[in-house]
Write a structure and sequence with these properties.
With 296 residues, the chain is of the alpha/beta class. The protein is built from ten helices and eleven strands. The longest helix is centred in the N-terminal third of the chain and has 23 residues, at 8-30. It is globular, with a radius of gyration of 19 Å. It starts with a strand and ends in a 5-residue tail after the last helix.
């Protein structure tokens, strides 16, 4: 029997409806709305597309939203000054600088300049440290989307063997930390595999929950999956274009093989991707509450 599809687009829609209700309540009871600024330096087409999607979602949810487009030759000091302005702006609860930045700009310095309380991407070392000790203010967006997908699908996480393939700072490391915490939607035993792992298949075959975030097209084959496992495919790899110019995307999992072995699996596209922007919005709503001293 083919695996159940874990459709992130449907779950994301459900969460956005919850957020809309929260925003309406913040406005009616406290006369505030969440504020989000997205800063785009240059004209990278993919970055422009991502930023448009974030702004569109923010508008739909009723946020105060600002799209700040800057030229590609903006110097680093000017960008830092711009971020400082938004750090001090009481109407802005979340600051997002779209990556990648032009090569003449030091990304680490830029990310460090964002007030941790407005770092709704959760990239700042302060937020990474709080995540590590189990006291996060904000959860990194893609890992948070993965965890929410697992929880809302009824997947048993507590006590489960979880294997993460990939160790990036954006997905692999944080999702491993999140799922091993003593908290709701966690308490798992987590193994992290990477390019130096000697026998990846040995580890993935033990996984009750397999999270593929290697960035390699169809890296995880069917024979690497434990029968009945839940498979989360984080990969978004362009493998070509249709005759009308649309991108053809594949994940890090060989879907046609995996769907016959797993009990549940995320599709690509339409799986983890839609959850990321939604969790960014959730972080911004939380930031608004924190800044205005409003209890959940």
């Amino acid at each position: 029997m083919p695996a159940k599809l874990l459709k992130g687009a449907e779950v994301a829609k459900e969460i956005r409806e919850e957020l809309k209700a929260e925003v309406r309540q913040l406005q009616s009871k406290h006369s505030v709305v969440p504020g989000l600024v997205t800063i785009l330096v240059g004209e990278n087409p993919a970055s422009q597309s991502y930023v448009r999607a974030k702004q569109k979602t923010a508008h739909e949810l009723g946020f105060y939203s600002v799209q700040d487009n800057q030229p590609a030759d903006l110097d680093e000091e000017a960008l830092l000054g711009l971020i400082d302005k938004y750090n001090r702006d009481p109407k802005i609860d979340g600051i997002l600088v779209q990556l990648p930045l032009p090569k003449h700009v030091n990304e680490n310095r830029v990310l460090l300049s964002i007030d941790p309380g407005k770092d709704v991407d959760a990239f700042h070392p302060v937020n990474v440290g709080k995540l590590m000790i189990g006291e996060p203010d904000y959860l990194p967006c893609t890992p948070a989307g993965i965890q929410e997908l697992l929880v809302r699908s009824g997947t048993e996480i507590s006590g489960a063997e979880v294997v993460v393939v990939g160790r990036s700072n954006i997905v692999g490391k944080p999702i491993a930390v999140m799922l091993m915490q003593k908290s709701r939607g966690a308490n798992a035993t987590v193994t992290v595999c990477h390019t130096r792992t000697r026998d990846v298949k040995y580890h993935t075959r033990r996984a009750d929950i397999l999270i593929a975030a290697a960035g390699v097209t169809e890296y995880v084959k069917g024979d690497m999956i434990k029968p009945g496992a839940v498979v989360i495919d984080v990969g978004v790899n362009e493998v070509g274009k249709t005759p009308d110019g649309k991108r053809i995307l594949k994940g890090d999992v060989a879907f046609d093989e995996a769907v016959e072995i797993a009990s549940a699996i995320t599709p690509v596209p339409g799986g983890v991707g839609p959850m990321t922007i939604t969790m960014l919005m959730k972080n911004t709503v939380r930031a608004c509450k924190v800044h205005n001293k409003i209890k959940d």
